Amino acid sequence: TRRVRIGERNPGIALGMLAVREGRVDFFPAPVFFMFALIVLSGAMLDARLLLAGHIAGAQRLVRHLWRMGMAHVEAELGPADPGRAVEYFRQAVDACSPRGMTSLAVMYASGSGVAQDFHAARLLYEKAMAAGDDHAARNLAVMYLEGQDVEVDLKKARDLATRARDAGDHDADKVLAAIERRSRKQKGQN
User: Fold this and answer.
1) What angle separates helix 99-111 from helix 119-131, to the nearest 10 degrees?
2) Which pLDDT tens digit goes with each residue over 70-101?
3) What are phi and psi of 54, to 5 degrees?
4) Alpha carbons 118 and 140: distance in angstroms, whole number
5) What SS3 state is found at 165?
6) What percentage of residues in the chain have a pLDDT greater than 70?
7) What is the mean pLDDT of the chain?
8) CB atoms within 10 A of CB 14
9) Do 174 and 166 meet the contact criterion of CB atoms below 8 Å apart?
10) Start-to-end CA span in the chain (Å)
11) Does residue 182 carry a pLDDT above 60?
């Protein structure tokens, strides 16, 4: 066998040229290497085009990516669900001040999925997410006030939070509001 120094800039082209001269390299014909080189160059050109056009939004894009990777592990988009891995991504998103990351990590704490169940940590994260502008966290916090998870049961506070979430477009908040009304009627019937 003969040692070949592969081109440092684009090994696909160097291997393609060698395959043309030798007939094959590692049992692969020349077109395979030229196709690889074309794919690499196309990817580099598209990356350069995006950077020059300014479509990559820097930190915000990274934060969204961290949150999205966590969701992919929750929803089993990358294979079997991996709540522990999702928690890792959500923590990174929280460290980057992502309201969605805060809400998602709070859900993991509240459910005990991928992390030990901790209603106190969940409540603090929901409150932080709401302060950062995620009104959808209000629905989950409303459930905590409805169920008395790390807080005293407070139907008025639960109703206010669920209403805030509904007004922000959270359609699931209507279910929480209905549960609050049922609990309220039940309490009035007992008095």
Assistant:
1) 160
2) 888 888 887 888 999 999 999 999 999 999 99
3) 80, 20
4) 14
5) helix
6) 69
7) 81
8) 18
9) yes
10) 92
11) yes
3-class secondary structure, 28:
strand
Nearest to 147 by CA among 127, 112, 123: 123
Q: Give kind and range of the element (H or E) at residue 185.
A: helix 173-190
Cβ contacts of 70 within 8 Å, gap of 6 or more: 85, 86, 87, 88, 89, 90, 93, 101, 104
Q: How many CA atoms lie within 13 A of 39 on its CB side?
A: 8
CA 122 to chain centre: 17
In angstroms, the CA 88 to CA 94 distance is: 10
* Contact present, 144 and 106 (Cβ < 8 Å): no
Angle at CA 89, nearest 5°, toward 86 and 93? 135
Check residue 32 and report its DSSP letter.
H
User: What's this model's pTM, rounded to 2 decimal places?
Assistant: 0.68
SS3 39: helix
Contacts of 142 (CB under 8 A, 6+ apart): 157, 158, 159, 160, 161, 162, 165, 173, 176, 180
Residues 125, 50: Cα–Cα separation, whole Å: 35
Specify whether the CB–CB gap between 39 and 16 falls below 8 A. no
Rounded Cα distance between 90 and 107, Å, is: 10
Q: What is the pLDDT of residue 10?
A: 43
**Does position 108 have pLDDT exceeding 60, yes or no?**
yes
